[in-house]
Amino acid sequence: MKIKIINWIKNNALISSILMVSLFTLFGYLTYNSINIGNGKNDSVKNNTIAENKEEPRYSDYSPSEKITSMAAGEDSCNINLSEQCAQIIFNNSTVKFSETFENIMNSAGRKFQTPPAVLIAYMAGINSIHKFSYLFEEENEDELKKSFHWGGQIRGCDDLDPMEQGPYDWIWNWFTATMDATNAGDVLNELSSGRRNAASRCNFIDATYVAAAHFSQANGKGCGAEWSDLIGALKSLSWGSVLEESYAEDRRYEDGSIEAYFKACSY
What we know:
mainly alpha; 2 domains; 0% strand
């Protein structure tokens, strides 16, 4: 019988080869499937565990709006006065309504950095950026301003990739970062959201405003009660930087009354 089988295999070599290949293929297929089934069970358990442990993020986890509102509350001495006179000088229209978000951002900056927030309006007027970016102040554009609640949220008309003057305060990149390093601006940004300082942007209205307020806080030394005369030096230093101090004497824009008018119109 054995001899007959051997002779049959010799005489039917092609059929034998096909049978052997088929058997090996079937064995490999069954082995592969058994491995995948086992892994599939493990992946299913793993995915279910992740799903059970993962908490769905909430908008409030990423938005500092409630903290800003809380920081903004207090006496008028550190607040901006968004009166009809303020609207008139900014928009040339006293009926324009300011948004609550804008008011809270400015008041929180004034209170947290102990500086009159109206000086920020005056500075934007002094560098001729206020008319380009005043759309952010309006009630009808509040959603645009709310983009700044988020890390990396950038306003229109600003390019953070350009290292030169950008945004409402004409921040040059190295001045912006140097001011954060020299003041407590970075710490305050981290109070809004942990690690926010590392993502601070000149094109984010909150970031840019807080760093500017920190500059005036450091420079005037008189807190929210600072008068216009106390702020002129800080206005000039932010306009020109320390390397161009020779330009301070020639710059009379902050002393001829035209920019001071913005400060007075938007102060209590």
